[in-house]
Amino acid sequence: QVQLAESGGGLVQPGGSLRLSCARSGDTVTLSTMGWYRQVPGKQREWVASITNSRSRAYADSVKGRATISTDNGMNTVFLQINSLNSEDTAVYYCTTMTSAGRTYWGQGTRVTVSS
Fold first, then answer.
1. pLDDT tens across 18-48, in order?
2. 57: buried, middle or exposed (CB in 10 Å: 19+, 13-18, 0-12)?
């Protein structure tokens, strides 16, 4: 089992920045991808960004140019920085990972509210 714990959410003013963290614990397994999704109540969870174990990065159009996903060498922690936040970034952000065996794990989520 792999556990994921997100942190860094909260209230942010429009135009501000935030940096979310997701720490991995549990079984030592090889990860192929770590990423972030977000969900607004009443809507489907949407993909935000992902990074592979070869450090290939991808971003949703909604955050491209404003977001940076990164990880430490062992993929034990993944970070998501988003700049120029707006109200549409308000959501619960979830960390996810896929192991090399194809299993997917999710964190409990961290809430981000963009409001003045």
1. 999 999 988 877 888 999 999 998 999 999 9
2. middle
